[in-house]
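quick one before i forget lol
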Amino acid sequence: MDSFLAPLLILIAAAAMSAVLCVALRPLLTRYALARPNARSSHSIPTPQGGGIAVLAGAFLALGPGLLFGPLPAGGQNELLLVGAAAILLAVVGAWDDIRPLPASLRLALQAACVGLVVVYAAPGLRLFPALMPLALERALALLAGVWFVNLVNFMDGIDWITIAGIVPLTGALALAGQAGALDLGSGWLAAALCGGLIGFAPFNKPRARLFLGDVGSLPIGLLTAYLLYRLAGTGAFAAALILPLYHLCDATLTLLRRLARGEKIWEAHRSHLYQQATTNGFSVLGIVTRIAVLNLILIALAALSLRIPGLWGQLACLAVALLLTAALLRAFSRPKAAHG
C-alpha cells in the first residue's frame, strides 16, 4: 500500500463500511438496544444505540490491509494490534453496559485493565517526562489520564453530533500529522481509520439522530483517541496533545470538579455539562455542535503552530490562547443565549 495515499484510502474505506454497517445493524439495534428517554436524557423519542459497532468495525476493517501489506515495522504492527484488541475488549464492556448496566466499580476496573494493556504493552518505550519522574510513576499517571479520557469521551457523548464535532477534526489532524512526519505512520493510519469510521456514522447521528454511538462506541473511541494523543505527546509535542482535545477536556473536567464540590455521586447520569446547559439556555443542538466544531478547527491551527514554534514559551503561549478561546465558549454556553445578543 502506497504510504502517501494510504491514509486517504483508509479513511474512505472506513467511512463506506461504517455507513453500510449502520444501515445493516440499525434494525437489530432497534430491537435489542433501544435507548429510551428519561429525566437525564437529551433525546425525547426512543432511539437505537450501538452505532459504535459500525464505527469500530469499519475502522478496523479498513486498517487491516495496511497492517498486512503496508510498510509498517513489525513493532508498529504489533502495537496497533494490541491497541485494537484493547479497544475491542472495552467495546464488549460498553456493549454489556448498554444492555445491562454494570456496577460502577466493575466498569472502572475493566476500563483500567484495558487502558493498562495499552500503556504497558502498546507503547512500551514511550516516555514523556524521563528526567522528572521514574517510569512506574509516569505509567501510573498515564493510566489515570487514560481512564479519565475514556470516561470523558463517554460523558461528552450526550447530544447528537457532539462526538463527531470533537473527534473527527482531532483524528483528521492526527492523520495529517502522520503524513507530515510529526507522528509515526501507524498512528496516522489509525487516526485516519477512526476519522473515517465516524464520518460514515455521522449521517445517522445528525440532529435529530436515528442512531447513537452507545457505550460500545464512546468508550473504545476514547481509548483510541487517548492512545493517539499519548503517541503525539511522546514526540515532544505535549502542548499540541493538550490543545487538540481541549474543549472536551475542559467541559468534562470542570463538570466533574463542580459535581465533586456539590457532593454528588459522580458515577450517576446527569445533565450538568456545559454543552447540556446550553440546550436549556436557548442554543439549538446544531448551534452547539457547530460552535464546538469551529473551535476545534481553531485549536488544530494552534496545535500546529505550537509544533512550529521552538521553545517552551511559544508552546505555552499557544496553549494559553487555546484555553482563553475554550473558556469563552464554555462561558457562552453557561449563560442564556439572549444575554449574548
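fyi Residues 150 and 221 are 8 Å apart (CA to CA).
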